Each structure stands twice: as C-alpha cells, then as structure tokens.
C-alpha cells in the first residue's frame, strides 16, 4: 500500500519533531543561566571568561571582589524599602479605586497605567530631570523614590483584581457585627487581600531588584547590583557576581517549589475533608 | 462600640418619612413604617421595589436622604452600623471565608468584648444544629449549612432587631420550606423582632405575622397574611400575592350592603364593606379558588354571582388541583382553581361552563381604573422574575 509508509513517516516526524524543538528552545533559554552558574565555580582572576578550573572559593569568599557585596546590599535595601512603600500605597489606591466613588476616579485609573506603558528610558530621564531641577542629591533615596514610583502601578493592578473579586457584603457583615472601620480592615479586608498583596510585593521586589535603566538615571554614584554588573561588564565581571546571581536564582526556584508543594498538600487536605 | 451586654428583648422599629435617592433614581419616595417588638415582619415585593434598600437603611449600611429611623424609641439615623443593636443575615450569607465557623459566629461577640464568646458561639451553633462543624471553614459547608451559620452568627449577638435579606433565596425548594419552619421556631424561641425581606410571597405568608407589600419604593398594603390575601386593596397586591380575576365596569346600583357592577349584560355584586370605591368605573375581583365551575346553567340565587356561559380554553392539571381558564364573553378570561375531588379534570377544553361565587368573597380595589393596568403589569413582571418554583400565570386583565 503506497499510502502506508508515507503516513508512518509523517507520524514519525511528528513524534520526534516536538521533543527536538522543545529541547532546543529550553537549551536556548537555559544556556545563559547555566553559563552563569557554572562560571561561578571558575577559578578565575579578574577576568571570568575562560575556564580556569573548579573552585568553591568564590562562593565562600563572595565579598572579596570589590563592590559586589555593596551593590548587592544596596539592591536589597532599595528593593525592600521600595516594595514596602509601593505595596502600602498601591494597596490603599486599589481599595479606593474599587470601593469608593469619587471625582476623577477613572482618570486616576488611566494615569496609573502610564508608567507601565511608558519606555523606561523616558521615565528614568524625566525623573532625573526633576531631581536635577529640584536640586536633590542622587543616591539611595532617589533610587527608592524612582522604584516606588514605577512599582505602584503594578501593585495597583494586581491588588485591584483581588479587591474586585471580594464580595462587599463581607465588609458590610463585619460592620454589621460591631466591627469598627479598623477592625473590619485588619480582620476581614486585609487577610482576604493577602494573596493579592503578597503577589504584588513579590512582583515589586523583582522589578526593583532587576531594574537597570531607571536606576542608572537616578542613582548618582551609588551602585545597585544590575548597575554594578553593567559597569563591570566593560572590564570583566568577577566570578563573585556569578555567585550572587546563581544564589538569587536558586533561592527563587526554592521559593517556587516550596510554594507549589505546600499548595498541593493543602489541596490534598481539603480534598480529603470533602 | 455597643455595650458589652445583650439586648433584653426585641425592640420596635419605626421609620418616619424615609426617603432614599441614589444618583439617577429614587429608591424610596416616602416610607413610614412601624414594626412592633417581637413580631415577625415581612417586606414583600419584586426586585427593585426598595425593600433591600429599606433593610440596608435600618442596618446602617446606607444613609437615608431624609427621614428618621428609631429602634426601641431611640433615634439611630446618624449612627454607624456597629453602634446599632441590629444584625443582618445577608443574602449571600457573607461568611468570612478565612475564619472557622466558630470564629465567624464569635466575631460579633469578640468585637463587643462579651464574656466567654467561644461558649456562646457553641451555644448558637447548637441552636442551628451545626456545632459538630465548628472547626470547619465556611467554604466546605453546603448552602443550607452556610445559611444556618449566617443565622447563628447574627442571633448569637441577641440583637433587638434581626434583619433577614432574602436569606433563603439560594436554597432549593425543599430545604427552603424546612428552613422557613426552623426560622419561625427560632424567632419564637428567642423572642426577637425579625424584619424579613423577600420576593417570595409564599415564604412571606408562611412565616410573617405582618406583611407589607412594596412596589416602586412605596408600601402598597400592610396587614396580616390572611387579610392581605382575602382583601387586597390594589391590583398589584391582588396579583402579586396569589392570583386574582379582576373585572372593571360601571357601578350600576348600590344598596346599603352591596354594590353592583355592570359587566356587559352580566353584573357582579360585592359587599359595600369590601369595596372602597363606590361610584363610577370600579375594579372588582375574586380569587380563582373561590370560584365554582358549573357544567349547566345555575338557577339564580341570592348571594351568588354567576358568569357565563363561556368556553374552557385551557386546563392544566397540577396534582392537588386543576387550573381552568374560561373565556367568557364580556368578562374575558377567568381562572378557576378546583380541588381534584374526583380523578382528574372534570371538564375539558371546549366545554361550555358557568362560574359562580359567593358575593362575600368578592372585593373591590382602591385603584382608579387607569392604575389597575399598571398594577397588573408590575405584578406580572414581578411574577416573571419570581423564582419561587411556581409557574406564574400571566395576570388577568379585564379593563
């Protein structure tokens, strides 16, 4: 039968094509990460380009390279402070936008989207110009202000979705059951918004930790981790930077895995209950 | 914050000249209402009639545009919800999903720093027979169980006034009947004043001592269920609370006791005491179950109205009774509910029949003739929205 082999070959092709394509795509995605991880064990000098042999020294003496740990600490400080500020302000804005009717409400909703749509170069340069005309000295403070600014939009969007899904009757029930405004917020609204707020905070931290463009415009002499790497790239990135990058990556993976495992366990427990 | 003690007993509720406007529409035009302490009062009306708004005003979740709200004689118009001796069972139950059933019930007690909240919460859960589920989260309960937790969460606070916002609307028919009886029992047991908002007329009639029928932000009629049913004063009440056959005609004669209305060549007599409008064009009515179906022309008899003959145009059998629709020239379609005393329907489509009813069963409406059509229309629309599980017949109009 002439149709037989043709059909079989098509099936064969389809059976192999997808795995090969998937493997290639994954390799393409993972090579930079694998490179960073492997070269964090490179026994290199100043330049970390050619493989010089395996060592754990860079992991055990990560702060030896000049500026790596300072930049990392700065990034953590900026990330934490900007996340706390943006999450607090953004949550309040999100609740106001969903729960209350006031003038210019839809205009504010629209304006909050702008930082997300505007190119970062424009945002960074614009903010830098404002700091200059106000005579503000650039440093950690200006970086925090800049990061808080662009993180707020993401927090508002994330938390707003959660507030919209919250039945207003829950808060009314709280008020009806003798809860003062503060008691209703802290015992009902806030606990129910926590998943949204947590997601918004994680997103804010990730965005802040990662940001280079806006930071570069508004940081003055202060280095954050991405800025340090960008500058170091010109004369060779020390392997200690690879160590920090790998550690952050591993930490993120661990958090995701732990979250997934606990969620699965909780789902199983709930399923057993029913 | 309210005091750390319970209300001694139910309190009466008084609404004086309440008006509520929202941007773009008026929910309540002008409402005066008095609910005596310890009563089970139902606000009955179609969606959008203002009954839920009334409830929210009493709870303090909305502020009236004008008017005063008094609970137990005390003006609470400008107080916050948590300062009022009032608790609500919400339509959606609004149980706090992140707390256990026990913590839900204890929430109000804790806010008021009432002694031994956990024991009292358990006690309330025992009242609704759910104490064994105290440690569960509300999400893992069935609808009926959630409803009972919501009820326990409200009554554990011993409010002077308990507000129920269509609390049985989400339950299936059988469970709803059972909960109606349980609610009534609990009300008798705890002696609180219940204000129950519903669009289900059967529910209102089963449970309440007094019903106020609301339409378009106003109370159409208020009274005991039997009173409202037997002597409706408007076309809306006549058709929203059960069904009615309505006939509009000129008053052709009056005696001290009776009013006669000409209807084509026929005439209908109603007792003067049951007819508020006594001259000109009036609308009179009679309930379908008060009619007797006759297969031969009846002998004229004092004290009975007779219409006919007409043709049976529809027969629908519903087990305990059969509904006949009879087209009578000059009177329009007349609905008759007949008990199935024998097997099945007694006449079939196309049969020639007469209907008769005792004069004292008739009633006259307060509505002017032009208001009748609007009332009938509103009731028909409301019946269409009604999800009580009964097929509502289109309202009958003879104007």
UniProtKB/TrEMBL annotation, chain A:
Record's subcellular location: Cell membrane
One GO term of the biological process aspect: transmembrane transport
Mode of membrane association: Multi-pass membrane protein
Pfam families xrefs: BPD_transp_1
Biological source species: Subtercola lobariae
Keyword Cell membrane: yes
Gene3D superfamilies, per the entry: MetI-like
Protein name according to UniProt: ABC transporter permease
Primary location recorded for the protein, binned into one broad class: membrane
InterPro entries xrefs: Bact_Polyamine_Transport, MetI-like, MetI-like_sf
CDD domains found in the cross-reference section: TM_PBP2
Family membership noted in the UniProt record: Belongs to the binding-protein-dependent transport system permease family. CysTW subfamily.
From TrEMBL, chain B:
GO cellular component: ATP-binding cassette (ABC) transporter complex
Keywords: ATP-binding, Nucleotide-binding, Transport
ABC transporter domain segment(s): 13-241
Gene3D superfamilies per UniProt: 2.40.50.100, P-loop containing nucleotide triphosphate hydrolases (3.40.50.300)
Pfam families for this protein: ABC_tran (PF00005), TOBE_2 (PF08402)
Signal peptide feature range: none
Keyword Transport in record: yes
GO molecular function annotations of the record: ATP binding; ATP hydrolysis activity; transmembrane transporter activity
UniProt name for this protein: Polyamine-transporting ATPase
Higher taxonomy: Bacteria, Bacillati, Actinomycetota, Actinomycetes, Micrococcales
